[in-house]
Design brief:
five-stranded antiparallel β-sheet, single chain, 113 residues, HIT family, subunit A, 2 helices, alpha+beta
């Protein structure tokens, strides 16, 4: 999708602080972090929301595997982290490209929201 900011980041048209990349996923530091560690993990192909994941595709597994690798890279795999997926406008999704937020690096608040 030409106008999608995350597609442009994946293609390298917009610079990012890349954390991890494999064949199907790309992870980069969030430019407005909500924790000391705040990484966005996106599929390289454009998928709008978690509701658009195909049941027979392994993309969800690939995204979770990428999250594990990012947690190790950022050294929050032992202390803990939070994974957040917002879905749709009422769910707080601002960019219409599926993405996981990996947050950590400090004790996070118990409440979500």
């Amino acid at each position: 999708m030409d106008e999608c900011i995350f597609c442009k980041i994946v293609k390298g048209d917009i610079p990012s602080a890349k954390v991890y990349e494999d064949e199907r996923t790309f992870a980069f530091d969030d430019i407005q972090p909500m924790a000391p560690v705040h990484v966005l993990i996106v599929p390289k192909g454009h998928v709008e929301t978690v509701m658009d994941l195909a049941e027979d595709d392994d993309l969800a597994k690939d995204l979770l595997t990428a999250a594990q690798k990012v947690a190790r890279i950022k050294k929050v795999d032992r202390s803990g982290f939070r994974l957040v997926v917002n879905c749709g406008s009422d769910g707080g999704q601002i960019v219409s490209h599926l993405h996981l937020h990996l947050l950590g690096g400090k004790k996070l608040a118990d409440e979500m929201g």
